[in-house]
Amino acid sequence: MHRTLALMQRLALALVIGAGFSVVWSFAAGFVDRFFYQLHYAEYVEVTLDGKVLIRGHHNGIKTMRDLSGNAVEPASEESNITRPIALTLESRTAAPAVKLGLGNDSFPFRILGPGRRSATNWYFVDEGTLRNAYFFVGYDTTTKLRVGSIGAAGFREGPVPATERFSMSGRPMLQDVHLLSRINRSGLKIGSGLNSNLPSDLAYSTACICLGDGTVRAVDLKSRTEHTALENISYLAAQLAEEFDIDIGATLTRLLVRTAAEVLVFDGQFQLVRKFPIPAEMIGDDITWYLTKGGSAVAMTSVVQPPPASGTVYRVAHIQPSGAIVHREEATINSQPARMLETILMGSAAPEPVLVYLLLVLEHTSKWLANKAATTRVQALGFALRELWPALLVAHLIGLIFAVVCIRRQNRYAVRGTELWVWPLFILLLGLPGWVGFLYCRRWPRLAACPACQVIVPRNQPVCPRCATAYPPPALRGTEVFA
């Protein structure tokens, strides 16, 4: 019983030591991965303001660019002509690009600069949780640290917002049904758009849009401390703020894009419908990346990662006119297999625990293939994940096997007996290098010395030799001993 308890204590201590080593090792492996990443030939898709779809490549610091037909394009000639992508994914409502939505007051502030930029107000978007279904803004002066007021559904007030005046949704709310959009960053600077806020058609940079899952969009101007209902009765799937270059006035304006089941609606700064685009039939059930191009046109794009043994990502592109007519469709495949192979090998060395790699395989990569709709069943997704991660699994198992053999040899050298003979090799086989480190430092190892009788190097923590069972002779007397 005592030996079993001591073994359990050692296993627990080894697990803690191994976990700490795994964290440090992962950070070190991350730096190595960044170095090797520079050696990859990475490609990604970009769209110009003219609606041209280009493929940009990067390898060893050398930038390349080509069109979908394979014709080389000079990167410098298109650098200033690239339009920003707008993610209209079906999961957009689960993300908050400008603020962290949590079950408490854990969001970072929106800073609104005062007159002369000598003072400012930090506004926090407060989410009291899905069960309470209550959302509001509270502001604090950056100089005095005092609360300046709150903004709720009834507007600004100096005190706290009553529970009846907080933003809420009809029906049972879910956290992913609240989506906050804003162009304000932590320092209060304007991010890209909203620079022409003096134009009636542009959205003021200080405006935050609260998109509620019941089809309502509330607009809150944190500078003027006002709020109003901007849109209602819109069954939206995704919403984002985006920039669009207006040829008529020669300026970039902020637009609110709302994705419904079959259309993408574009609203101006006054939340008036500017235009609407139909979603191509083949893209209705997919995550879409949207691009606003010159002349009121748009480019819609979807991507599908090809499952193993194929490699690369297939991009499908549709060019849409302001009238809603789809005038052109394109398709391109970007090959990323060499980078993927190297990354999976590094994954096996960065996380050299077979158990951790298997958890990653089941929890993350299997779900990824299901989300990409490349697999229709979990078994098929698991097969794709195994084909993708087999290098990482191989490396992790090799590391675990090597150290398990080293563990057996060390135990033989230290004359370990009993249950520990098979428990520790199995422990290291499952946990790999971190398990080996935990095994080494979870105990005090005895001193090794040669047995006077058989001359074998053995541990000297027992009264007899574990090899020949001969009793060790007592140490020679030096004349300084004290006998009581």
Distance between the termini: 36 Å
Task: Report the count of strand segments.
Answer: 24
Task: State mean pLDDT (0 to 100 scale).
Answer: 76
> What structural class do the secondary elements suggest?
alpha+beta
Characterize the main sheet.
5 strands, antiparallel
The dominant shape is: elongated
Task: State Rg.
Answer: 32 Å
Q: How much β-strand is present in the residues? A: 25-35%
Which strands sit side by side, in order, in the main sheet? 5-19-20-21-22
The tally of helices reads 6
List the secondary-structure elements in sequence, H or E.
HEEEHEEEEEEEEEEEEEEEEEEEHHHHEE
Helix-residue proportion: 25-40%
Unreliable stretches, pLDDT < 50, 5 or more residues? 92-107, 171-177, 185-197
Explain what the structure shows.
The protein has 484 residues and is an alpha+beta fold. Among the domains are: 1-37 and 336-441, no CATH class; 90-233, no CATH class. The protein is 27% helix and 29% strand. The protein is built from six helices and 24 strands. The protein has helices spanning 2-37, 75-78, 337-350, 354-371, 378-413, 420-441; strands at residues 42-48, 53-59, 62-67, 82-83, 86-88, 110-113, 120-127, 135-141, 147-152, 155-157, 178-182, 207-212, 216-221, 226-231, 238-246, 251-259, 263-267, 273-278, 288-292, 298-305, 313-320, 326-334, 448-450, 457-459. It has a five-stranded antiparallel β-sheet with strand order 5-19-20-21-22, with no helix packed on it. Strands 6-7-8-9-10 form a five-stranded antiparallel β-sheet, with no helix packed on it. A four-stranded antiparallel β-sheet has the order 3-2-1-4, with no helix packed on it. The longest helix is centred in the N-terminal third of the chain and has 36 residues, at 2-37. It is elongated. The model is unreliable at 92-107, 171-177 and 185-197 (pLDDT under 50).
